Amino acid sequence: MKEQLATFRSQLEEFARKHRNDIRKNPAFRSQFHEMCAKVGVDPLASNKGLWAELLGIGDFYYELGVQIVEICLATRPHNGGLINLQELCNLLRQKRKHDREAVSEDDCLRAIRFFKKCLWYRH
């Protein structure tokens, strides 16, 4: 069983290398990739310095997205106390990132919030 899991992880890494651009640019594909990883116990967001971060730059993507989410929450704080609807947040992120090639989905926002929360928690 361990051998099969190791083989699958190796194939998953090869898949990630081959489809790196699609994973970075396509939110639906990125979400499916995360689901596939979760099914075999691989968390591409577990470490900012691991193979996945190096291979995909995915940790940087979610960290940057997390910073932008915080900026939006702070900017909208006078209007909503810093609490914002997920759809509205995504719309504001899309406006803010309209020049970036990487689209953002609600799933990306949720992952970024969880990832950013972990980063902040580990640093304290």
From TrEMBL:
Cited Pfam families: EAP30 (PF04157)
Gene3D superfamilies tied to this protein: 6.10.140.180, Winged helix-like DNA-binding domain superfamily/Winged helix DNA-binding domain (1.10.10.10)
Listed InterPro entries: ESCRT-2_cplx_Snf8, Snf8/Vps36, WH-like_DNA-bd_sf, WH_DNA-bd_sf
Swiss-Prot/TrEMBL GO biological process terms: protein transport to vacuole involved in ubiquitin-dependent protein catabolic process via the multivesicular body sorting pathway
Listed transmembrane segments: none
GO-annotated cellular components: ESCRT II complex
Family: Belongs to the SNF8 family.
Protein name per UniProt: Vacuolar protein sorting-associated protein
Organism expressing this protein natively: Rubroshorea leprosula
